[in-house]
Design goal:
- The structure holds 2 protein chains of 2 kinds.
- By secondary structure, chain A is of the alpha/beta class.
- Chain A folds into 3 domains: 155 residues, D-Maltodextrin-Binding Protein, domain 2 (3-Layer(aba) Sandwich), CATH 3.40.190; 130 residues, Periplasmic binding protein-like II (D-Maltodextrin-Binding Protein, domain 2, 3-Layer(aba) Sandwich); 85 residues, no CATH class.
- In chain A, strand 5, helix 6 and strand 6 form a beta-alpha-beta unit.
- In chain A, helix 1 packs across helix 15, helix 13 packs antiparallel against helix 14 and helix 14 packs antiparallel against helix 15.
- The two termini of chain A are 38 Å apart.
- By secondary structure, chain B is mainly alpha-helical.
- Chain B has one domain.
- In chain B, strand 1 and strand 2 form a beta hairpin.
- Chain B is globular and about 65 Å long.
- Classes of the chains: A alpha/beta, B mainly alpha.
- At the A-B interface, helix 3, strand 6, helix 7, helix 12 and helix 13 of A face helix 8, strand 1, strand 2, helix 9 and helix 15 of B.
């Protein structure tokens, strides 16, 4: 037994030395130049990995990584949630040095107008607009609405009877409002169903009459021809000025007599106050990436138009976009109960019931438990200190080594024989996990 | 399908299956560490990986972890995971009688058969159910989720009121953030970081991992009084296989169907199969004394719940248990929305999930066969090495989700909440299921009410919806009527 323990000790020592060497080398080999960029550029994607925006950014990221001219890669950080406000706010509060960017679409503008976000693009430095998704109106193939005219007439004759799948406050909601406007008096009944997938199943199941999808989504969701009509979808109009090469059979809204030209664009933002030198360089990098033939091909596959705007033109574009959406009031749905109040009420009732039934049998803590509770409290304290250190920006390894050592040695009750193994463990694990996470998995650490 | 099979049989695919299953078995065998915890901690590692590989690894861990618990359950009477609580009833006495090899052999065989039978159901049923589910509108989804919530509350604990309280507390804590229906933020108390509410992963790591670690620390000195038994491996006789055939199939089918019900996990599956095996046995008095039928029914059923629970997850995006909730999170993180579209759009994912489950079962049986002797020892790893490492993993795992320390604080807070609730003997499973299913119920109800302009009538006029509603009401009222009926003695078993 003791020989295997010695062996373990030797192996872990060798590993620790190796990792220490890696750390020292890494520390020395930092790019010494003062030219921007001399470290990786983080791009915050305020959606989950695998979504539309994420896929788009990853195409650009691959092109930049393959370009030998730029030694510094893009690193993608997914910060989903809150209608894209979590990621947006994170970039807004970051250091304006050009090393942290935000990539978002019209959702940023829509969120502000709908009151979901209390900040807008004005609080950020626009770097570039690159790429626009074309949008289509989708119905089930056997739907009574086979064109834009019949759809809007129905919405006019019977306001609120056409069930329109658009989350309230999302870009799609605003585009639908624009559609309403072209035919005065028409009103859709907006229904929030969540993402494209869910909207798709609701349309197939006949629970929604119509929804807005990007051309890329439509092409992906559409079943092959010959599928029964009640199990397939159909695009009745594309909301751009011209027909799309990917789906040439879909007529434009303008052709059908409703002048609409809209699309959901992708934007790149930096925090407010980012130096112009850095913004210029970022624009150069993005401009080069969008001309890369592989990027062009990939974007074509997703039916994303590779349009590009910077500087004055971009500011104007954002302004027009915001103004055009601003005129629509966001009306919250009526007839919904106040769910939180109901749930709070039920929880309070149940808590009272449980307290009345079981409140008297208190659990007694015996003396032996007390000693170990103190150990538990001590370890909670160490853990809290550790997390506070990480929050204050202490680097991962320097915070983790003492944390593991202190927790381990306290659990071992300061047993002298365990001092060395616990110390080895703390070094091995801290350095090892940093190596594994940053080099192998490229997951950012605290 | 070919693509998925080819991917699984690449060296990387096979290594991931072996690695995942061994990790699962290993962690499952350590009392106090559960598969849920391991999957929650491994998930952040897979963010950058190919989603097919990520799911392969996670499913293998799942299969391994449910099986791994049998080792310590049989040898030490410490169920490695809650799924193997019932295995202690007959496995431990059998080992005490000097037949640990036979007990483990039967358990491994039953686990394997249970896994494969439920896999068959998964393959056969997932697609039809997915197609059927497009017929489900918002009201059907709402009443289905309601039924799942009542089901877990009425079966999953000692006291109905405590389970319901836990479930509704879960729903309440899922509410802060931006409401899907209205787009307005609520219950955030002006904290911007709360705009997205509490995320599932930090909540789970807190409730289960942090809570359990501190429970282990407090119990550190309480040495187990049970006698440790050494084993030479496992033994399996063909006669046993034949004799237990019917029992195994029956228990597997029961396990699959219990797994299929949303909200119910492996432990309840094994309780149900054990009870049925006992009631229909010619020698019910032998149960609990080291009877082979008991070991077989418990282990076949707990592994069978995996395939059952994967059906609603893959077909409709409804998680069947706590682990499934994490797997759902994993699919979503990788940009895949389970449901009818998954079959059309990402058939390779569906086949990867199915294939990985099948291969993981084979890997599980092999790993158990070869490393049993060594596995029996791992519960002796000193906690002074194990716990600090797991604590740091909890911090990294919570952080890596969205790269913010806020989630680490959320994890700690929920660790405290979980500790408090369990101290008051309030079960945590309904809490998690409420936390996951609450938003699904609310979104669907909102969508339904928006479509009808506020009318609740369709809930009782649509046939499927009223059927679900009737079942939920019946399950809520029946336990109140019979209060202490037969069968209530095994209720306390269900702890997770």
């Amino acid at each position: 037994m003791s020989s295997s323990r010695t062996l373990f000790s030797i192996v872990s020592s060798i590993l620790i030395c190796g990792l220490l060497g890696w750390k020292v080398l890494n520390w020395k080999s930092g790019d010494g130049s003062f030219q921007f960029p001399n470290q990786p550029i983080q791009v915050v994607v305020p959606y989950s990995a695998g979504g539309g925006t994420d896929t788009f950014v990853r195409i650009i990221e691959k092109s930049i990584a393959a370009n030998e001219k730029y030694t510094q890669p893009l690193v993608i950080l997914n910060q989903p949630g809150g209608g894209s406000t979590i990621g947006g706010r994170y970039v807004m509060g970051s250091r304006p040095d050009g090393y942290r960017l935000l990539c978002n679409n019209d959702a940023l503008i829509a969120a502000q107008l709908a009151g979901i976000a209390n900040f807008g693009y004005e609080e950020l430095t626009p770097v570039a607009q690159l790429g626009t998704m074309s949008l289509v109106l989708i119905v089930r193939e056997d739907s009574p609405y086979q064109g834009l005219r019949s759809l809007l007439e129905a919405a006019k004759d019977n306001p609120n009877s056409v069930r329109f799948g658009a989350d309230i406050g999302s870009p799609a909601y605003f585009y639908a409002k624009e559609l309403e406007e072209t035919s005065p008096g028409s009103r859709f009944n907006y229904i929030s169903t969540g993402g494209g997938q869910k909207r798709y199943s609701h349309i197939l199941g006949g629970h929604l009459d119509v929804g807005i999808f990007s051309v890329g989504e439509f092409v992906g969701y559409r079943s092959p021809e010959g599928t029964p009509k009640d199990q397939n979808i159909k695009a009745i109009a594309i909301l751009t000025a011209e027909r799309n090469q990917g789906v040439p059979e879909v007529p434009t809204a303008t052709e059908q007599g409703f002048a609409i030209d809209n699309g959901n664009s992708y934007y790149w933002f930096a925090p407010k106050g980012t130096p112009q030198v850095a913004v210029d360089k970022l624009q150069e990098i993005l401009d080069e990436a969008r001309q890369d033939p592989t990027v062009v091909a990939e974007l074509k596959k997703l039916s994303i138009t590779p349009d590009y705007r910077v500087g004055e033109e971009l500011d104007q574009y954002l302004k027009v976009k915001k103004e055009s959406l601003k005129r629509f009031a966001v009306s919250p749905p009526s007839g919904l109960p106040h769910f939180p109040n109901w749930v709070i009420g039920i929880v309070l009732c149940l808590a009272a019931l449980v307290f009345l039934k079981y409140g008297r049998n208190r659990i007694k803590i015996s003396d032996t438990d007390y000693g170990n509770s103190r150990l538990a409290i001590l370890i909670v304290a160490i853990l809290l200190t550790y997390i506070i250190c990480l929050q204050l920006g202490v680097s991962y390894v320097y915070a983790t080594i003492p944390a593991i050592f202190l927790i381990g040695i306290n659990l071992a009750e300061w047993n002298k024989q365990k001092l060395l193994p616990v110390a080895q463990l703390s070094l091995l694990f801290s350095l090892g996990s940093e190596f594994v996470f940053t080099v192998i998995f490229s997951v950012p650490l605290p | 399908m070919q693509e998925a099979i080819q991917l699984l049989f690449t060296p990387t695919g096979l290594i991931l299956i072996l690695l995942g299953t061994s990790l699962g078995v290993f962690v499952g065998a350590i009392p106090g560490l559960t598969g849920t915890m391991l999957i929650a901690l491994v998930l952040p590692l897979t963010y950058g990986a190919n989603p097919q590989y990520a799911l392969t690894l996670l499913i293998s861990i799942y299969v391994g972890a449910i099986s791994g618990g049998m080792v310590t359950a049989t040898l030490l009477r410490m169920p490695g995971t809650p799924a193997s609580i019932v295995t202690t009833f007959d496995g431990y006495p059998m080992a005490q009688k000097g037949q640990p090899e036979k007990a483990l052999g039967l358990a491994v065989m039953a686990s394997f058969v249970g896994g494969v039978i439920s896999w068959g159901f998964l393959v056969l049923l997932a697609k039809p159910i997915a197609t059927l589910s497009t017929k489900f509108g918002p009201f059907e989804y709402f009443t289905l989720v309601l039924m799942a919530l009542v089901l877990i509350a009425s079966i999953g604990g000692k006291s109905l009121s405590k389970s319901l309280l836990s479930g509704f507390l879960g729903i309440l804590l899922s509410m802060p953030g931006i409401a899907a229906a209205t787009g307005q933020s609520r219950l955030t108390f002006g904290i911007n970081a709360l705009n997205d509410g509490f995320k599932l992963l930090p909540v789970l790591i807190g409730l289960f991992a942090i809570n359990q670690i501190f429970r282990d620390i407090i119990d550190l000195k309480k040495k187990s009084q049970t006698k440790e038994i050494e084993t030479k491996g496992l033994s399996l006789k063909l006669a046993d296989f034949r004799r237990q055939g019917f029992n195994m199939i029956r228990s597997s089918v029961i396990g699959t169907w219990i797994g299929l019900l949303p909200g119910i996990g492996a432990n309840i599956g094994s309780v149900a199969a054990y009870t049925v095996a006992k009631n229909s046995s010619k020698t019910p008095e032998k149960f609990g004394t080291g009877h082979d039928e008991g070991v077989v029914s418990a282990e076949a059923a707990n592994n069978a719940t995996i395939g059952g629970a994967l059906i609603p997850l893959v077909a409709m995006g409804l998680p069947g248990s706590v682990v499934e909730a994490v797997l759902l999170g994993a699919l979503v993180v990788h940009g895949l929305q389970p449901g009818p579209r998954l079959f059309g759009e990402h058939p390779e994912m569906v086949y990867t999930i199915m294939g990985a489950m099948f291969l993981a079962n084979i890997a599980m049986a092999m790993i158990m066969g070869f490393s049993m002797r060594w596995l029996a020892r791992i519960s002796r790893i000193p906690s002074s090495y194990l716990l600090p490492v797991i604590l740091v993993f909890c911090v990294i795992g919570s952080f890596a989700l969205s790269n913010r320390i806020f989630d680490v604080w959320v994890m700690l807070a929920f660790g405290g909440l979980g500790f408090f609730l369990e101290s008051k003997k309030i079960p945590l499973a309904p809490f998690v299921i409420g936390f996951v299913l609450g938003p699904i119920a609310e979104d669907n109800l909102s969508a339904g009410l928006m479509a009808t302009n506020g009318s609740w009538l369709p809930i009782v006029t649509r046939p499927i919806s009223i059927a679900f509603l009737a079942v939920s009401l019946a399950m809520l009222i029946l336990p109140m009527l019979k209060k202490k009926g037969p069968g209530s003695h095994h209720e306390p078993l269900v702890s997770e």
